[in-house]
Design brief:
The structure holds 2 protein chains of 2 kinds. Chain A is α+β, with helices and mostly antiparallel strands. Chain A has 20 helices and 31 strands. Chain B starts with 6 loop residues before the first strand and ends with a helix. Classes of the chains: A alpha+beta, B alpha+beta. The interface between A and B is medium-sized, with 29 and 26 residues.
Chain lengths: 782, 275
């Protein structure tokens, strides 16, 4: 259906309120009698708490762990072999495990007063040796983050398949690369925030919270607070970006919710950027060593990888830290037809904030892994980086293809995407320019990255259910309700915090029911009114909630057609829905007439109407283990070997997410993801000193790319519908973030090749490039 | 975060500022644009009891020629300099520098006097004013004193300003028509403080040849050998420039990891003059 349906680049319906400043974020929620919370945070990475002294006169406004009667600990579990769950106290008890960990909550009548009271709290610490890096964590005799564990290993995962010994024996080329992807912050525009209020009429605790998983938070928070789910209402209002950050049970939310119950007054906490950079869950923080064994032509026979993930002090709920290592290892073979594999992923804990999945979740590391070894292999064989990939890709005729790591690569053409990305940057022209040299002395380099992304994870068996974690996605629900005036309300269990669901979900309804999207309300983010879904993550909303919306709207077609046919005096089979009307062979009626008949004039209804009437509830269960989108990225960089700066002078992405419901929004998702990936590649790093003190605590030190740093990306799409999803839709939310570290690292190393220098650490900062050039020069390179 | 409790006053005249400072017994801070002090207050790194806002004092927002120097009121914003609202005595150098300071939002409020008083070593004005051999005029109740910016700055975030003093003007010597300047800087990204910045000035008629290197953590340094070489080359850098730059970098104790960056930034500033 044309116009507003699938494939229409409809501008976002929600934009008007955001652009006019009419959005309602947690910081906009002001309730009568509201109090404000501030937290005293640990100044040490690792220390024993000896004493807490509350300021005199403020004893009733200052709370420490011992005061939180009835509040449990946050315990995120998994059934992975040897997995150790962490006991996460909402306020530190006994010892603090990272700088910034909340120790005391102070309540004031204004945020400033709460901070003033917090500043007067005295906490006495005895410092302990901190575990700062993954290498510290693994040292024998290392200080222990969790004393009861005996070591600092959260989980040690192994995955073996195929005959690796045979691959090694047959190998003509063996290449090995080690690289480091440093810790990042998800850096949403809006920080974390919550407002809690007790409703005595409903005997219900209402928690407004910037979050992307309202229902899971309701489940988790009810466990930690010890109150039943029916008495806990979570409202995630407008949320200013999340990228995976706002998915866990945050200590502050638990404390504020508890305080609202205890004080019987609304309490709000809105963090600032400093607090965000110091204490939020971080992401990335990996090391990997990848080895590829190939025959004379460069065809990879086998692969080995060893991944280490620094998961910080605690496992967030519901996604424990171990899944990062599992994902990094389990996608390391990439889009390549490799039949022997050995992987190991060790997740360690350290005295830094918890590690949390972030847009792309471990796949940027996998991508860096398989793409860096592909370039190494191209060099070893003496062929072009495009050619080496073409020789190894899984081919369209092999699909659906079961990978060595149990992924089902369902559809697409990896070669076509890569070749097109090379055309978009005009590879021959770039090579000529590279050979000629730049007038300003900069070095040109080209890098590629091809990868797939498993999106819209199913239940199992090779995903969430296998890990045995707290939250396994299954059936995602949607409710569609025609109103008395012939308009539509859609209710979903996913959450939009920048994605544009209010627009694209309405487009799906238009596709089925022919209702103008401007007459459709898309409701989500309130556990009292939304159906019970699991939220927005793993690039799943369009596939899962979208599927449910289509199912619900199709169900709604039944009663609408039946009533319409009755009013039009024709057969139900002869009516069709379009332009907000029901058409019969002779004439049409408005949907408002259908609504009027059902709600106000049942005397006009046909006999034997289903009692559900004009409300339809449906669920959609995505395919196991998900649907597989993919992309090819091509980067052209200019590297100044003296200054060390890297400029991305051209960048192309060819993506395939199957059918695009709203191409404009898909483009926005990919470019937005690319910006995260660019930050990952060149700019963003959460740095710590040797005592575990965070040193990137403002946006002056935590450098994220801004508009002038972001190149115009040449973006094209290949549309291969997935055989496993409704309309062939594959997820696209994270795709853009996965490729840039690999493509840009390969491009930088291509540029530095004449100097025999290379950088295998992200972000690729100027000082790292200078260090690499210096090492190469002192080693007697060019 | 929110500032610790403090009182705030906004005198209409400089005398009011000086009175407030004198009576404050050392726990007052002067605020102009607040682009550095604002965040420091919110982080509670700075916890003055009193804030004296000088941004509304007309006398500090104007400029006037004083002989061969332009006296720029301390509260003149970067944006006004960028927009060419003050007389150009530096052949466009100050406009060029102003345009590269942080972001327009910062430039709209940030002031030249505030920047020098804060003395962030990586700040653009500090290196520029040292290169221009500019001075600051410091007012206090007892009187007025004037210091070369190079002497005014003692170290990172450290100046010779004393408690009851306020910068009233920055005095920038006029470059002659035949003078030339060069500038280059590298920042991690647009709007950031520079990791390395170099400004070179040659004004033959006045016998001025000054090359200054700005860095992230150390105060800007006048590059002695490079400046002498520039004078010897008559303002058109020659083959001898590189050796002079390297000698200066050695005496400044530049770390090996930063060496090539600073060398190339200074060389580019010099080359910028030659064209």
């Amino acid at each position: 259906m044309s116009g507003f349906g699938i494939g229409a680049s409809l501008p976002r319906l929600e934009d008007a309120r955001f652009l006019e400043g009419r959005g309602q974020f947690c910081a906009d929620v002001a309730l009568p009698g509201m109090l404000h919370a501030a937290f005293v945070r640990s100044p040490h990475a690792h220390a024993r708490i000896l004493a807490i002294r509350k300021p005199v006169g403020f004893e009733e406004q200052v709370f420490c762990a011992a005061d939180l009667a009835g509040v449990g600990r946050i315990r995120s579990t998994a059934k992975l072999p040897g997995f150790k769950p962490s006991d996460w106290p909402v306020l530190a008890a006994g010892k603090v495990k990272h700088a910034g960990e909340p120790v005391v909550m102070a309540i004031g009548s204004t945020p400033a007063e709460a901070e003033d009271i917090a500043a007067q709290v005295e906490v006495e610490f005895a410092q302990l040796p901190p575990v700062v890096s993954m290498w510290d964590a693994l040292k024998s005799g290392a200080s222990l983050v969790h004393d009861e564990w005996g070591d600092n290993v959260l989980v040690d995962l192994k995955l073996e398949n195929g005959d690796l010994a045979a691959a090694k024996a047959a190998a003509v080329h063996t290449v090995e690369r080690s690289f480091r992807m440093n810790r990042m912050h998800p850096l949403a525009l809006e920080g974390r925030a919550c407002v809690a209020s007790y409703d005595s009429r409903l005997d219900e605790l209402v928690v407004y919270v910037a979050h992307q998983l309202p229902v899971p938070l309701q489940i988790g928070l009810s466990q930690v607070l010890g109150i039943s789910q029916r008495r806990l209402r979570i409202i995630a209002p407008d949320v200013g970006g999340s990228f995976g950050l706002k998915t866990y049970i945050e200590s502050e939310t638990v404390c504020v919710a508890w305080a609202a119950m205890k004080l019987r007054r609304p309490v709000r906490w809105v963090q600032d950027r400093y607090e965000s950079l110091v204490c939020d869950a971080n992401c990335r923080d990996y090391h990997a060593k990848v080895t590829a064994y190939a025959d004379a032509s460069g065809k990879v026979l086998g692969m080995e990888c060893d991944v280490i993930v620094d998961s910080g002090a605690y496992s967030p709920w519901p996604w424990p830290a171990g899944i990062e290592g599992g994902l990094a290892m389990g996608n390391m073979q990439g889009c390549y037809d490799i039949r022997a594999f050995r992987g190991r992923a060790i997740n360690v804990v350290s005295n830094k904030p918890a590690g949390q999945p972030f847009r792309g979740v471990a796949r940027p590391l996998s991508c860096l892994g398989h793409e860096v070894v592909m370039d190494a292999l191209a060099e070893a064989v003496g062929i072009d980086p495009v050619e080496i990939r073409l020789r190894n890709f899984v081919r369209p005729e092999q699909m659906p293809y079961a990978s060595i790591t149990k992924k089902t690569l369902d559809s697409g053409n990896y070669s076509a995407a890569l070749k097109r990305s090379a055309e978009l940057i005009d590879l021959p022209a770039v090579r000529a320019r590279q050979k000629k040299g730049e007038p300003d002395g900069r070095l040109i380099g080209v890098g590629f990255a091809s990868f797939y992304e498993q999106t819209a994870y199913g239940t199992g068996p090779f995903g969430y259910a296998l890990w045995g974690i707290e939250l396994v996605p299954g059936m995602e629900p949607a409710v569609a309700r025609l109103t008395g005036d012939g308009e539509l309300i859609l209710e979903v269990g996913t959450h939009s915090h920048g994605q544009g669901h209010e627009t694209v979900f309405a487009q799906l309804a238009y596709e089925v029911l022919g209702i103008d999207p401007r007459k459709v309300s898309v409701r989500f983010g309130d556990t009292s009114t939304s159906p019970v879904g699991t939220g927005t993550y793993t690039s799943r909303s369009m596939v899962s909630a979208g599927g449910a919306i289509v199912e619900a709207c199709r169900l709604l077609q039944g009663p609408i057609s039946k009533i319409g046919a009755h009013l039009l005096q024709c057969q139900e089979a002869d009516v069709s829905l379009r332009d907000g009307r029901v058409f019969g062979p002779r004439g049409s009626v408005e949907l408002a007439e259908i609504g009027r008949a059902w709600y106000h004039h049942p005397e006009d209804l046909p006999e034997k109407m289903d009692v559900a009437g004009l409300t339809a509830t449906a669920g959609h269960k995505p395919h196991d283990p998900g649907v597989f989108a993919y992309s090819a990225h091509a980067a052209v960089v200019a590297v100044d070997p003296e200054v060390g700066s890297v400029e991305v002078i051209d960048y192309a992405i060819v993506a395939d997410c199957g059918k695009r419901v709203n191409p404009l929004l898909v483009e926005g998702q990919v470019i937005g993801g690319f910006s995260n990936g660019l930050g990952n590649a060149l700019y963003e790093e959460s740095t710590y000193d040797d005592q575990g003190q965070p040193t990137a605590t403002t946006l002056a030190d935590y450098t994220a790319p801004t508009a002038p740093s972001i190149p115009d990306v040449k973006l094209e799409f290949i549309e291969t519908p997935s055989p496993y999803a409704m309309f062939g839709i594959k997820g696209i939310g994270e795709n853009g973030a996965i490729g840039p570290p690999a493509a840009i690292a390969n491009a930088v190393n291509d540029a530095l090749r004449p100097l025999k220098a290379s950088v295998f650490e992200t972000p690729i900062t100027a000082s790292r490039v200078r260090a690499a050039v210096m090492r190469a020069r002192s080693a007697g390179g060019a | 975060m929110k500032p610790a409790p403090l009182s705030y006053s906004r005198p209409e005249a400089l005398s009011g500022v000086l009175d407030a400072l004198r009576q404050s017994s050392g726990d007052a801070r002067v605020i102009a644009g607040g682009q550095s002090l604002g965040p420091m207050l919110n982080f509670r790194i700075a916890q003055p009891r009193q804030l004296v806002d000088i941004s509304r004092i007309d006398a500090l927002c104007t400029t006037a020629m004083e002989g061969d120097a332009l006296a720029i009121g301390a509260c003149v914003t970067h944006a006004r300099i960028e927009d060419g609202e003050i007389p150009d005595v530096t052949l466009g150098l100050m406009r060029h520098i102003a345009r590269g300071i942080a972001y327009r939002a910062v430039r709209n409020r940030g002031t030249i006097g505030g920047s020098l008083a804060h003395a962030d070593p990586a700040a653009d004005w500090l290196a520029t004013m040292i290169a221009l051999d500019a001075s600051v005029r410091l007012q206090s109740t007892p009187g007025v004193r004037q210091l070369k910016v190079a002497d005014f700055v003692v170290g990172a975030l450290d100046t010779q300003i004393v408690e009851a003093e306020v910068i009233s003007h920055v005095l920038v010597p006029r470059l002659t028509a035949s003078a030339r300047w060069g500038h280059n800087k590298y920042a991690k990204k647009s709007g950031d403080f520079a990791e390395s910045a170099a400004i070179s000035i040659f004004d033959g008629e006045r016998g001025v040849a000054r090359v200054v290197l700005g860095r992230r953590a150390e105060p800007p340094a006048l590059m002695q050998r490079t400046s002498e070489q520039l004078a010897a080359d008559g303002g058109r850098p020659s083959g001898g420039a590189e050796a002079a730059v390297e000698a200066d970098l050695r005496s400044l104790g530049v770390k090996p990891g930063d060496w090539t960056m600073h060398r190339v930034i200074v060389m580019r500033a010099l080359r910028d003059m030659a064209t």
